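Throughout this chapter, every protein is written as a compact record of paired, labelled lines. An example of such a record is reproduced below:
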Amino acid sequence: MGEKLIEVEAWTAQFADAQRDWVRVVRAEHAFEQQVVDRWRSKFDEWRTDAAALRAAGQWYSGPTDFMGVLWLGQDEVRNCRVLAWLMDPAGAHGLGDAVLRGVSAAAPLDVVADSADGRVTVSTEQVMGGTRADIVVRSGSGTLVIEAKVNAGESEGQTGGYQERWGESATFLFLTRDGSPPSADDRARWRTLRWIDVAAMIDGALEVGNPNAPGRGVAEGFRDAVRNHLRPPSGAVQPQQSDPDERGGEFGDE
């Protein structure tokens, strides 16, 4: 009996030793983990300080990078058309002359070179004719160009067909969209298409030869960037095939 008591006491002592050892192990592990946490906290504080310094120096930024985006107008159809019409005005303070006008008109196609040189071209927006409202209208001695622009909204029923009826046979029509899709008008042979991203390329080309000291040049540069940022073709859009209108009865053929 005495031997068993001694054995129990020995086991009890061993368990106590093991418990103390375990507590030391756990405490050491927690201390190590705390060291890791403290080290990471210090590192995060260092990064936070670096980030604050970069922001203060203007080297860490986010958000819109063009004036249309800052104004939340990047995909506003009316405002984008107003800026484009301004760029198409040869007398605009952008200093690009008639370069953008000639580029857009050539896509129609409408030859305005001679009329532009004589000052016989006017560009206006939101023009009403017989219940229709055209986004941009170019009037010249060579004819009238009616531009219907779309950003995200689709055509209203009979919209482009109504333009043809109201503006008459002498008008030329251009459908300006993000992806170059055709209008719904039955007589699509009278319509040509143009993408907003192609307009950005026209502006880019005009900037290369325009007046570098024009007071509105920065606006032209900003709008080019805005078009590329906000009006590029939707993901998955297929670039429209180019064709000879004379061979097909118009860009879309006779249907």
Remarks:
- The radius of gyration is 35 Å.
- The longest strand covers residues 132-140.
- The CA atoms of residues 86 and 219 lie 10 Å apart.
